[in-house]
Amino acid sequence: MKGTLVLAWVVARKDLQVELRTRERLAAMGAFVVLTALLFNYAVDRTVVHPGSIAAGLIWMTLILAGLLGLGRTFELEKEDGAFQGLLAAPLPREALYLGKVLSNAVLLAIVTALTVLVFAFFYQVVLPRNPLPLIGVLLLGVTGFSALGTLFSGITAGTRMGETLLPVLLFPLLVPLVMFGASATASLLGGFPASEIFGTLRILGAFTLIALAAGVTLFRFIVEE
Amino acid sequence: MSLGFVKWGALVLGLAGLALTVLFHWQVFFWVPTEASMGIVQRIFYIHLPAAWVAFFAFGIVAICSAVYLWLGIEKLDHAAQAAAEGGMIFTTIVLTSGPLWAKLAWGTWWTWEPRLTLTLLLWFIYLGYFMVRNSTDVPEKGKKFAAVVGIVGALNIPLIHLSVLWFRSLHPQPVVARTDGPQLHPDMLTTVLTALAAWTLVFLSLYLLRYGTARLEAAADRAVAATRSPAPVREGVAP
Q1: What is the pTM assigned to this prediction?
Q2: Which residue of chain B is at minimal alpha-carbon distance from A216?
Q3: Residue B239: pLDDT band with limits 50, 70, 90
Q4: Least CB-CB distance to B163: which of A172, A174, A177?
């Protein structure tokens, strides 16, 4: 178990190192969230709806779409020169490969999430709570759950002819609990409610993340088998 | 299961299902009393509710067959999961068309974000993903494994999706048949809904067996074609 986690970290570190040097995904996802936040300004009639009051929902939708953008590239790196075959041939349990990919996706998405929240605070005068820890907790759980499910499905779509276009069809129906509880907890926290209000929601988000991780760890080996 | 058994089973179940379908339509249109508050439109319920039960039953088969298929790698189980998914998709579509028709008259709107409605729509999309994944790989074996993973993860998520859609206040009628204190229905209505349930279940099982049999024949045909295309390797060192 400990060995698996160490190896997962090795996989994640490799991905993050590549990302640190090229900064391709972060640049694309970062630009995406800023521009999406900008477009929301024109999509919503500001005389009728104050964007600040629906900020939680907009933040979550932005995150999901930005996350989708990043997920599509999960196995892109290894497509060249048969690198994925090399990764499969490496003395590396499939679980470690999966967890490493989840971790690198989650780290990237967490950075983008921080940017998203700041962009919304900047553009739409969303007041961030005085104690940011509960909000960080909700968003991190959401990011982890999304990456856990998304990495599994991006492994599937990478092996199909349709590729990334198939990803939302598979992923979105299953994201309902995440969006619903994530957005409602975020709305409570941005609305100034105390953290004790969202304990129940946090538990369900936690359950979602655990189920997604367990399913991914168990099933990932079947989708990368040759 | 031998294919002969599958064929005869499908035929017998199909005929029984057809007979019961005719019977429950007669009950729905001519026999069962009209519900007091909703009036004539409530009769859609006899088609709607059993279809929903069968749709979820089918999804259970998909999940179990998919899991055991991945575990043991028996190809027949993949055929079984695929057949259940196709049947499930038909019945989910019946639920999703009969529901709004009824809702428009009973609630005054085609669609509400009502828990069971939403859940059924999401189920339909999970089935859709199952088929799209299955048919979009170059190697069929891969598509089968991918689809099995989608089926299992979908089934694992169903309880959580159900929980989250329940969070919204429900407009849907409370359960009237599957209750802990016994069904709260006029006895004739209960008879009708149970007849309909038996009819849909038999029709589903018949379609299921038929589809399962066809899937196996398809696989056998594919194997036969593959065998003719790549002739047996010539043994070396043997004079012709």
Answers
A1: 0.85
A2: B153
A3: very low
A4: A177
Count: domains in chain B? 1
State the ipTM, two decimals. Answer: 0.86
- Is residue B237 situated within a structural domain? no
Residue B112 structural domain = 3-172+185-218
Query: Does residue A208 belong to the interface with chain B, where contact is any CB pair within 8 Å?
Result: yes
Residue B233: inside a domain, yes or no? Answer: no
Determine, for residues A162 and B132 on separate chains, whether the beta-carbon distance falls below 8 Å. Answer: yes
Predicted confidence band at B176 (pLDDT cuts at 50, 70, 90)?
Answer: low
A chain contacts of residue B133, beta-carbon cutoff 8 Å: 156-157, 160, 166, 170
In a domain, B65, yes or no: yes
Angle between helical axes of B140-167 and A133-158 (0-180°, round to 10): 150
Instruction: Establish if B212 belongs to a structural domain.
Output: yes
Domain borders along chain A are 2-224
- Answer whether residue A14 shows pLDDT above 60: yes
Contact A177 B70 (CB under 8 A): no
Cβ of residue A174 closer than 8 Å to a chain B Cβ? yes
Tell me the pLDDT of chain B averaged across its residues: 81
Q: What is the pLDDT of residue B240?
A: 43
Cβ A161–B156 below 8 Å, yes or no?
Answer: no
